[in-house]
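Cross-posting from the modeling subforum.

Setting up a comparison between two proteins and wanted a second pair of eyes on the formatting. Protein 1 (sequence, then structure tokens):
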Amino acid sequence: MSTKVGFSTERVKLGDNEFASSDKEILSECETYYRNIYSSKTDYDDSRINDLFFGSTGSKLLNSTENEKCEGLLTKAECLQALKSMKPGKTLGSDS
């Protein structure tokens, strides 16, 4: 004997006194909601974003040749070389 566990949504609030109640309306509202939260709405200054995530590390940007080397798929040889260069018993990240 199997038991189905799940949920259903009968309506979604759109505004103060407005609701979506059909499957099509609810699906459309969900799609709009997730499209909005997972898309960028503003053009950000890259340097501000870099500072936010990486701080002012003073590291240099890649030139066009270095940038091109980073494009494309990784090869097995590149992955193996990276794994072999890691110290045993260590994990990535800061030790502080």
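Protein 2 (same layout):
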Amino acid sequence: MIKQLKEFDTHFYDMVTVGERGQVVIPSKARKELGINAGDKLIAMKSHNGQAMVLVNMKKKEAKQMFDKMIKMFGEFAAKYSERG
């Protein structure tokens, strides 16, 4: 369990607030590390249960491969936990 939390922590940047117009500010450390700049196109997608949202930077060459992996991963996760009922 501790190992999982430490792994999660390396991917956690900060808490964000949704403004009145539905906008959020991506933390500067995340923008720098992920190479996100003003005007970039990001795909916003939700997890199968609607509890999480992921932003995918489409300017990266690896974006399609990563997107395909994420879809597969979410599908496997959903199948695994739906079996538990």
